[in-house]
Design goal:
- With 195 residues, the chain is of the alpha/beta class.
- 58% of the residues lie in helices and 12% in strands.
- The protein contains nine helices and five strands.
- The protein has a five-stranded parallel beta sheet.
- Helix 7 packs parallel to helix 8 and helix 8 packs parallel to helix 9.
- The longest helix has 26 residues.
């Protein structure tokens, strides 16, 4: 498998891991996958974090502390997920730096419940960006009709975005238009487009 992954990486394919957990971070597994399996990016989503929380004890202490502090489920979810994503960004940072930002990115998704609310998606994207506070973060926004303007507004604010839930050419076309419009607005807003 490693030879095939190396061949793909040598051909210019960016190999991403569709999984993130505190166990991967604390055991060095993510760093090992970067070194030995050519992984250059990580994506996460609520289902991935749900599995990570259910399958291990590495979150127990933090969950107890958040409960003792009176955090509701939304606050606890934000803290836990952004902590893991921040740490994954730090692990991936050498790849990000070595590739001038082409690779070495980590993605966190806005809440799927916001897929049909432009304003709430934009607000949550900004919150995630500010909370993680790492240059190699990507905010994953759904490619829904309401997501298109959220993509534009988020990029215009200087926040890096990737898009999920694209199931057809028309959606893809609208996402591309939203992306370009966001870049144009970001440039007008004085953001450095090279990043």
């Amino acid at each position: 498998m490693n030879d095939r992954l190396k061949a793909l990486a040598d051909a210019g394919v960016s190999i991403w891991l569709d999984d993130l957990s505190r166990e991967r971070l604390e055991t060095g597994n993510l760093a090992d996958l970067m070194k030995n399996r050519h992984v250059v990016g990580v994506t996460s989503n609520p289902a991935i974090f749900q599995t990570a929380l259910a399958d291990g004890e590495r979150y127990d202490e933090q969950v107890r502390q958040l409960a003792a502090d009176g955090a509701d489920v939304d606050r606890a979810t934000l803290v836990i997920t952004t902590d893991d994503v921040r740490e994954a960004c730090k692990v991936m940072r050498p790849v990000f730096d070595a590739t001038d930002g082409v690779d070495g990115r980590v993605s966190i998704e806005v809440s799927p419940g916001l897929a049909h609310s432009t304003d709430e998606t934009v607000t949550e994207a900004a919150t995630l960006w500010e909370t993680v506070d790492q240059p190699n973060l990507l905010i994953k926004i759904p490619g829904t009709k309401e997501g298109w303007p959220a993509i534009t507004q988020t990029i215009a604010a200087g926040i890096s975005v990737n898009v999920t839930l694209i199931f057809g050419l028309e959606q893809y076309r609208n996402v591309m238009e939203a992306y370009v419009a966001g870049l144009e607005q970001a440039a007008d807003n004085g953001h450095d487009l090279s990043t």
